[in-house]
Write a structure and sequence with these properties.
There is one protein chain. This protein is an alpha/beta fold. It has a single domain (about 10-289), classed as Rossmann fold (3-Layer(aba) Sandwich), CATH 3.40.50. About 40% of the residues lie in helices and about 20% in strands. The protein contains twelve helices and eight strands. It has helices at about 10-15, 50-55, 60-65, 90-105, 115-130, 155-165, 170-180, 190-200, 200-215, 245-255, 270-275, 275-289, and strands at about 15-20, 25-30, 40-45, 70-75, 110-115, 135-140, 235-240, 260-265. The protein has an eight-stranded mixed β-sheet, with helices on both faces. Helix 4 (about 90-105) crosses helix 5 and helix 6 runs antiparallel to helix 7 (about 170-180). The protein starts with 9 loop residues before the first helix and ends with a helix. The model has no long low-confidence stretch (mean pLDDT about 95).
């Protein structure tokens, strides 16, 4: 694989595309490292202020250095992508958006890394476009159904929804305190950057709340269809995930044709950030072998 450009900043890789896919007509923002290696698409979670770059900035360099083209998509309703009010399945909406982006980029088959909502979206894309997926990496999401042991919605999801309704620095810190295992790694600068991201797009916050009111189940259970997914899949979870409990990850492994699982100790909902170095090594080895 060829080496990507070393200048991998958010600004240097930032791009926009107008996509039309079925009844979908919207502008989305994405980051693209370029290169002619196999493409790894990374899909972010649903937290307020989330973006592709914010979720995966500890991973981009390692994947690009290994020769992969890395594409980070800001889902509709996040980052610099268009606002949207989603009254149906958010997983399917994101999957259709991704199809439009890949079509626009002329990419046929890709690897997909999905965190939380991104995991749900990756599963939805794989079910709709099975021939376009090389390998899947799912962390803290994939929609294998609700936890059998933890009351739903979980503590973390309640805090996330509360932050959408009242986007304050205090509510952000409450959410982030249970988002990762060790909140001491969270700096004031990180909190402020996340808050700035959120408040820059109040339309995204308001639409998320409207979407939940219209359809509380934005990410439907795909448990009955998981067996259709033949793509080799690596499921990664934090033992201490207080947003999406670990047993839902076990259900993904149980349901899919070709899945394996790694559980990180002392890890919350953000494995690719909390254990970035080992995560990068493990996923790169999975992709190459």
């Amino acid at each position: 694989m060829s080496q990507a450009s070393p200048a991998l900043t958010e600004a240097a890789t930032s791009k926009f595309m107008r996509i039309t896919e079925g009844d979908l007509d919207a502008q989305i923002h994405y980051n693209d490292t370029g290169g002619d290696g196999e493409t790894v698409v990374m899909l972010h979670g649903s937290g307020p202020g989330a973006t592709g770059w914010a979720n995966f900035h500890r991973n981009v360099d390692a994947f690009a250095a290994a020769g992969y083209r890395v594409v980070l998509m800001d889902c509709l309703g996040w980052g610099k992508s268009d606002a949207v009010e989603c009254t149906g399945s958010r997983s399917d909406l994101n999957a259709r958006t991704l199809k439009g982006l890949l079509d626009g980029l002329g990419l046929d088959k890709v690897h997909i890394v999905g965190n939380s909502m991104g995991g749900h979206s990756a599963v939805a894309f794989a079910l709709s476009n099975p021939t376009r997926v090389r390998k899947l990496i799912l962390m803290g999401g994939g929609t294998g159904g609700p936890s059998q042991f933890v009351p739903m919605p979980t503590e973390g999801i309640k805090l996330l929804q509360g932050l959408y309704r009242e986007p304050t620095i205090e509510n952000l810190k409450k959410m982030m305190n249970v988002f990762v295992f060790d909140p001491s790694s969270m700096t004031e600068a990180l909190f402020q950057a996340r808050l700035d991201n959120m408040l820059a797009r109040r339309d995204h916050l308001e639409n998320f709340v409207k979407s939940l009111a219209a359809n509380p189940k934005q990410f439907p259970d795909q448990g009955a269809r998981l067996g259709e997914i033949a793509a080799p899949t690596l499921v990664i979870w934090g033992r201490d995930d207080r947003f999406v409990p670990m047993d839902t990850g076990l259900r993904l492994v149980w349901g899919m044709q070709n899945a394996e699982m790694h559980i990180f100790n002392r890890c919350g909902h953000w494995a690719q950030w909390e254990h970035a170095d080992k995560f990068n090594r493990m996923v790169l080895d999975f992709l190459a072998n």
